[in-house]
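call fold(seq) -> tokens
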Amino acid sequence: MKHEELSNSTIFPLGQKVEANFSGDAYLKMVFTDEKPLNTSIGNVTFAPGSRNNWHSHKVGQVLLVTGGEGWYQEEGKAAQLIKKGDVVNIPPNVKHWHGATKDSWFVHLAMTPGETEWLEPVDDEWFNKLSPVSKDQKRFIKRKAVCKTK
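ret:
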């Protein structure tokens, strides 16, 4: 998603720039913080291309509702997954992970976060810069190869 398309895909205002626990330009607009009825905060997070948050975990878990652009989500020990508008990511409690924009797209999500967040180290820049989306053909090949795996 290009910057000029950003205003057409956002539901909530951009919010304030976030400095701590993020690399690059990211913005947060809290849209819900009441304890009742859900006892969960909901924040609209907007990431400029290439920006992302640090590794972190949530004591109760987190749900991401992607509302615009393309981004990455990765759990520790697993491959990064490309996520796009319309995707929902259900993050279990105490799972170390990070999320943020791809190098070429703005990325917007609503983060539903009950409980506390434990912030950890930044995502390595050199490693992040090597990420690239997997094409549909590559996904089919990877899937077929996994199914056809011989002993």
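The two ends are 43 Å apart (CA to CA).
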